[in-house]
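[Amino acid chain]
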Amino acid sequence: MPTQVFTPLVKSQPKISIKFKFTIAVIISLIIIMGLGVWNLSIIQAKAFEQEARTRSELVLNFGQASRNYVIKQLAPAVEKHTKEMIFEAKSNAFATRSIFEIFNEQLPEYIYKQPALNPMNSANKADDLEKEIIAYFQKNQNRNQNKILPEKTGYKKNQNTELFYVAQPITMETSCLQCHGRPEDAPQAIRDKYGTTNGFNWTVGDIISALMIYVPTKDLRANQASMIQAVLFTFIGITIVLITLIYLLFDKLVAKRIYQVSQAMNQAALNPGVTVRINDKGRDELGRMAKIFNIMADSLDDAYANLEHKVAARTAELEKTLQELQITQTQLIQNEKMSSLGQLVAGIAHEINNPLSFISGNINHAEMYSKDLLRLIELFRQTYPQPDSPVQEYIQKIELDFVAEDLPKLLSSMKIGSERINQIVLNLRNFSRLDQAEMKSVNLHEGIESTLVILQHRLKANSDHPEIVVIKEYTNLPLVECNPGQLNQVFMNLLSNAIDALVSHWENHIIKDGTEANFTPQILIKTEMANSESVKIYVSDNGSGIPEKVSSQIFNPFFTTKPIGKGTGLGLSISYKIIVERHQGSISCESELGKGTTFCIQIPVRQA
């Protein structure tokens, strides 16, 4: 078997290769990792962003708180020592701090300082909606957390499409504030003149009446955050592209091409089982081991394929033989059933004929005796009365008594001969009817031959197709032979039928068509003799056309026939061979000469082993 070392020639890739799938899987994995990384980075950046914004806000807030504390604790008391007059720039911490931040905003206008209140004395300090919510939040938490320092509150606010981060701290009413924010009548006249007596009064010590809020811009922080994320994202994308390219190239070299080589080798092995395919892969990794295992498997498959071909051929021959035997057996069973039915029919007919025949043959002797007595009586009557009366004489002449007296013994004799012949035919029919018996028994072979001839008698007689076929019998005194009589009768039937067919065919093809051998007389010779002390021979010969030599070697093969379609199954001689050789331990042979005829010889033992 030729061996082919497989070298991959990449002609056509599968629609979706494992390399493509692996690359897609890597890309998806990297995208997921990148997404998780960006998401995690966003969280970190958000925290850093808020921390930076808080740091900025706290710096400004601390500055504002320091300014406020300075006014409350140092500037206001110092001015109070010199004058009792209300000087807003020195005694109002909100006014002073706001003024300081106005100067501060000249450099940093986006930074906002506010001290909003729900009911401020100065309307400029009126809290907006967000600030109201924050003050309400502080007040609510003050009620829940008595005597505890309230935490500051942070968040984001949109101001004219600009994002601001805010930090808010609660402002609690202190005793020093009552001078201006207590009862209106106790407030300095300057405050009442400037702000009136409606808002900013009647506050209680300890209440949260305002919040200190610092707004800082986040635009630059957002820009820095976006720039950082963008830089990281682009870096990650670049690394991903490099990794995917490297993985693609390495996978293609280390895995994909080698896997494709293995798959092509498997495909080649499947398409050409008779060609040995080998993979030339010296790698020591899993794929190299796969190639080695494939080569081992290919060797095993080669051996198995060779053995399989041998086994298939042997098995096919065995199956053909078995099928042939089954067909023979089936045909033989059908033939046996037909012969059995024929035997039963013949036995029934013989029985029905035998009953009236017994009466006829049994009474013929008495009728012959009675007729002789009557004829003797008539003769005595004629001697005693030589001149009978006229009526008697007329009746004697009418019935031709002399002719009747002469012909009656002949009639009775012919009837006796006919009844004896019928009796012999019935006996032969009864012998032939034994063919349905399956057991071995000792029988007279001549009786079987004669009974078969009786069945075929109608074919031996002359008709429109052929003249009478003469049967010549040369019987030797044979002992009783132990056999299956029904099966032997079937063999006799097959041989004699074939002989008749051969003679009819010879007559039709050579005598009628060619006009030759005008004096031809079709004959069948049946001869029996002792082959030795332990076996007998039966010859069945015909003087037909004979069998060609190339055909004679096949005549015992199943289903072989030279007869036209529909006139033979080709199993007659095959079944006869099995009956004689396999079931009776005998032999059957054929000798034939073209133009002279054919002789079949059967030899069977007298006693079966």
